[in-house]
C-alpha cells in the first residue's frame, strides 16, 4: 500500500509523519465486515486509531457501535456522532466513572455502556450511578483465560451480573481473548469453548427475564465467534492493519494502511539513520520487530533509528510499516491522509490524550 500512496504533496513535509491511506481503511472495513458476517455485527475498538474522522467514516459506512479504552475516546466517539459507545475498561476509579456519567448527561440520545469485573467495581459504579441518566448501562467483563481483567466464567460471574441487574442497568457480557493465537483451527477450538461458557451465563440471566447479550473477540478471533454466541464482535486494528497482521492474518485480506514517513539524516558504512525514533513508531515491540525492514534494525533512541542499508542517501524519505500500528497512532495528534479522491489532507487524531 505504501507504493500505492503515490507522489507526496509538493510542499515540504515535516518528518516523522504519520501517513494514512483512506482507501486502505475502507478496504479493510469491507473485508472485516465480510469476515464478521455483516457490518451490523461490528463494534470496532477505536483505541487502534484514535481518529474522529475514522469514527465518522465507519459510521457513514454502516457501523453503529464503537468500543473504547479511555474516557477521552468515549468523548471523541460521541462528538463524532456515535450513538452506542462501550467503555471496555473495568475501572474502579470514581473520578473516571464520574466523567463517563457526565458524558451520558451531555449526550442523552446516545447509549453509553460501562464495565466491571468485581464487587469493588460494582460498589463504585453503584455510588456514581445514583441520579445518573437512563442511558448508562453496564456489562460484566469475563476472563477467557487471558488473565488481565475480567471475572472467571463461573458462578461468581452470574452472581455479579444478578446484582447489576437489580440496578436495572445490566446489558450483558464482554469477552476479550487477545491471548488466543495459533492456526485458525487452534483459535476456533478455544473460541468455541469460551463461547459455550459465556452463553451459559447469558442464558441463565435471560431465563430470569434479564435481556442480555455478548460482545466478544479481537483481531485474531472476531471472525470465529459464532453468531449464536456473540451478537457483536470487536476487532480494532483492522483499520490500519500492520506488519504483524499482514504476516499473521493473511486470510483476512487486510492491507497495511498506516505508515511513518521518515527522512534519512545521516549515512555511514552500511547503515542509515532516520529521524524517527521510539517516540515516532511502535515502541512496545522488541527492537528488531518495530517496523518492517529488509536488514537489521540496529539501534533506536528517542529521535533516531539506525538500520542496515547500502542504497539510501542523506535526504531520502522512506515509508516505515509499523509492527504495531495501534501504539504508533497513539504518538500522533495529526496524520497526513491520502483521501479516496486522491488528495492529501492533514486530519486530527487524539494523540496521547487520555
Structure, described:
The chain is an alpha/beta fold. It has helices at 22-36, 52-60, 71-79, 94-106, 119-128, 155-166, 184-206, 243-248, 325-329; strands at 17-21, 66-68, 84-87, 111-116, 136-143, 151-152, 170-175, 213-216, 232-233, 258-268, 271-274, 297-300, 305-308, 317-320, 334-338, 344-348. The strands form 2 sheets. Strands 1, 10, 11, 12, 13, 14, 15 and 16 form an 8-stranded mixed sheet that branches. Strands 2, 3, 4, 5, 6, 7, 8 and 9 form an 8-stranded parallel sheet that branches. Helix 3 (71-79) packs parallel to helix 4. It is elongated, with a radius of gyration of 22 Å. The model has no long low-confidence stretch (mean pLDDT 96).
Cα radius of gyration in angstroms:
22 Å
Q: How many helices in DSSP terms? A: 9
Measured as a percent range, the helix fraction is: 25-40%
Largest sheet, strands/sense/barrel:
8 strands, mixed
- What is the molecular shape? elongated
Instruction: Give the helices and strands as they follow along the chain.
Output: EHHEHEHEHEEHEHEEHEEEEEHEE
Mean of pLDDT: 96
User: Which class do the helix and strand fractions yield?
Assistant: alpha/beta
- Would you report the number of β strands? 16
Distance between the termini: 30 Å
Beta-strand portion reads: 15-25%
Low-confidence spans: pLDDT under 50, at least 5 residues?
A: none
Question: TL;DR?
Answer:
The protein has 354 residues and is of the alpha/beta class. Helix content is 29%, strand content 22%. Strand 4, helix 5 and strand 5 (136-143) form a beta-alpha-beta unit.
